[in-house]
Amino acid sequence: MDTYIRAQTLIRKIESMSGNEDRSLVRVLINVLSHSLSLVMAELIKTQEMDVSQLEAIHITGYSQLTQDQIDTITRISRSALVGSKNKAVRLTFHDCVGGCNGCLNVNNPDNKGLEGLVADIETVYQDNNFSEIISRADLWALLGIWSINQTIIANNEDCDNCEEVPELEVTFKWGRKDCATAPYSDNDVGLPAATFGHSELMDFFSDEFDFNDREVTALMGVHTLGAAKIFNSGFHGTWISGGANGASGAVFFNNQYFINMASLDWTLAQRLCTSLSNVDSDLCSNGQTTGWQWNVAGLGFNLNADMALFKDFDTDSDGKPSCTYTTCPPATTTTDVEEFAASNTVWIQEFSKVYTKMLAHGSHQLQDVN
Fold first, then answer.
1. What letter does residue 70 receive in the DSSP assignment?
2. Dihedral angle at the C-alpha atoms of 329, 331, 333, 337, nearest 10 degrees?
3. Cα(109)–Cα(99) distance, integer angstroms
4. pTM of the predicted model, to two decimals?
5. How far apart (Å, rounded) are the C-alpha atoms in residues 197 and 210?
6. Using only C-alpha atoms, what is the Rg of the chain?
7. If we measure between CA atoms, which residue out of 211, 149, 141 comes closest to residue 183?
8. Each residue of 231-288: pLDDT tens digit?
9. How many CB atoms lie within 10 A of CB 51?
């Protein structure tokens, strides 16, 4: 088995060769080694030294196992890269998993703006600590996303005074995701969902990409309780849930306030002038620059069309302006889901845990338990 693992690791190193190497020779070496490994795999299965799922995991990742001690050490070392960026770590997991979780991000894609610094910081930790010998980047990003949510649940409950505490996230980390060949960066545009999506577009995207149903999409969108948008990144500006810590960088409490606000506040539509925005250097604003059409409640939060489409049914024009207001738009088909999640952190966390687990497995054939 050790020979198998060493040979698989050699293949991964050969595949990463670049520059002036003879690529045809590299391919011959890979083919010879791969054939030999197939024979070894068959023998190991025959002798029952390892089962099929374990060998498939090694073949995909080059690793034979991950232990809880290793996971604890990796988390302890890596969390230094997440100071003030837990919300971004959670956002990174979604952006990575569209198209399949593979530890690669196109930082030149405007939809990924704001994540480039975090990816670089995590990569520094990954390289400096030789984590490539233990865990893939895709697995590490998933691990840090789970850890970040758990930490923001703890922060919420420690701050909670006469309020409903948030139950523990019911997501168990599993490993076995494979990085793309150029990890952590890629030139691929995976087709992220647009902020201007209405209800049907939003549901169609998640159904086609992840096979999520409408309730799962609604539960997953609640992750925006941690999020924020900046005009120079996305063209929109605001913190989904204002009044928490960190100001424009996003709230730090993971709870169902996203749904409570959506279902109970008096939302208005506006394109906000760049020079009037808080936490923005007005010298960077172009003449007359505004945000896209967004839903706002002064001092309490903002929503994108894709958020409000969970609660209200509307069309948008070519500029992204909704066809009705908060008071005149009819309810969406997921309005009752929003109201149910607004009424109970427990109900929402249970549904969120299931869909987040499903999302983190996207594109992986078979994930393995931590020993």
1. H
2. 130
3. 14
4. 0.83
5. 17
6. 23
7. 141
8. 999 999 999 998 644 333 456 899 999 999 999 999 999 999 999 998 899 999 999 9
9. 10
